[in-house]
Give the backbone structure.
Amino acid sequence: MKDDTKALAAQEKPKTRNRVTMRDIARMAGCSQPTVSFVLNNNDAVKISEQTRMRVLDAARELGYKAPAQPSKSGDKNPGYIDGPIAFVIDTLATSPEGVHAYDGVLEAVKATGNIVILAETRNDPVLEPKTLQYFIDQRVSAIIYACVFTRQVELPKMLQDTDIPVFLLNCYTEDLSRPAVIPGEIAGGHTATNALINAGHTRIGLITGELFMECASGRYTGYRNALASADLPFCEELVVEGNWLLSSGFEGTKKLMSLPKPPTAIFCANDRMAVGCYEALKEMGLSIPEDISVIGYDDDEIARHLSPPLTSMNLADRSMGRWVIDQLFHGQAGNSRHPLTKLECELVERDSIAAPKGDLRNSNK
């Protein structure tokens, strides 16, 4: 009986290729990430029940979590030591979780260094942004992280071109790649998401895209087409509906797809918010997920795990991008020469919204 319990625990352990994070522990322990942080840091500013504390510690132990090494209190400067604060400048933070997650990744990675991070939101204001950047340059911060909420090519502000302060681009890049830059691998992500449906036996797969002028939307769309081509499946234009990232466009796009003479057996929504709308439309039509139709989302928002059934999604590499920047700052190259554009993998988070299509022999094995 004991061996069976161990085997079950091993099956439930999340599959992670990167190092274990507090977010992973929060998922396994069934609590929030701040709660995990309070427990692991022995912070008694908030009263946490002994039961919750033990759940967090057990999950951390089970996942093999290793706390970052704390900075030396002796005053010795380790190799890669960088003095002073780090500036994190982003165009939009309050209206989207992606920017918050990237900032969290920076904070998580910088904790072991003893540095502080100063956050500024510019909202693409042509007056506010240069004033903000100039302030940080005048303060001689250790580094400036220049971030965008939507993946895109940018023209680096001249003051960032001229400064000798290390500059890193997060979720954006310049044409000449003169500064280290990191973005999510959206084409690969779209391919992985579509392939998850293909592997389940689906051959007629609908896609509700984001706004296609955005690189993240066009990348996921390209990945969708590449996956179909790799599986030798035909591309059908009628199966692609352009959405706008909002719940309502997921709802309307699903209605349009399901009204086709030959509707899809699976739908790939280019973000989780549209997947929520997709769920609502399918349930309004009396269809069950995944028995009648499979659904996959993208971004792995908090809501994905609370839908019924929980939504399979792609984990956008926001936090990983934040950690990557700090790793490059302390251990990489930050000069003004040309740098390769780094694309981080978006991982599949499997839940319960995908099954074999009706009539597929794999249904009989479930």
Observations:
- Confidence is low (pLDDT under 50) at residues 1-17, 69-79, 361-366.
- Residues 215-230 form the longest helix (16 residues).
